[in-house]
Amino acid sequence: MTQYYIKVKLYLEANSKTWEAEQDKIRLQDDGHGAFIRTWNVNGLAKPTEEQIASYEASAVVEEENKVVISTRKTAYGPWDKQLEEIYDNGIDSWKTRIAKVKSDNPKS
To answer: Is 98 found in the same domain as 48?
Structure first.
C-alpha cells in the first residue's frame, strides 16, 4: 500500500495539492486484490482513474528508493549536536568532506 499512497501523493502534487492538506479527505484500502481509493472528497480535483495512478509508477519507485537513501544518510550524518561538536573540534572543511563522502556513497536516484 505504501507505493500506492506515494502514487496518490504524486497525483495530488501534480495538481497543486498536497497529501498533508488532503489526507483526511482520502481513504485508501487494500482488499487483498490490490490497493484502491475507497473515498475521495478532494475539492476541485477529480478522483484519479487507475490509469492515472499507474502513470506515477516510475516516480513512486524513485521516491521510495530515495527515502531509503535519505534514512541511510541521516544515520551516517549522526545527530546535530554531534555534527556541531565535530565542526567545532575539526573545522567546517573536515565536516563538509565527511558529509560529501556520505552523499557520494549514498546517491539519490
So the answer is: no
Residues 50 and 80 in one domain: no
Q: How long a stretch of residues is the chain?
A: 109
As to burial, measured by CB atoms within 10 angstroms (0-12 exposed, 13-18 middle, 19+ buried), residue 6 is buried
Residue 60 lies in a domain: no
Whether residue 8 contacts residue 28, with contact meaning beta carbons closer than 8 Å, is answered with yes
Q: What is the pLDDT of residues 65-105, one digit of tens each?
A: 999 999 999 999 999 999 999 999 999 999 999 999 999 99
Q: 51-63 pLDDT, tens per residue?
A: 999 999 999 999 9
Beta carbons within 10 angstroms of residue 51's beta carbon: 7
Banded pLDDT at 2 (limits 50, 70, 90)? low
- Asked if residue 1 and residue 49 are part of one domain, the reply reads yes
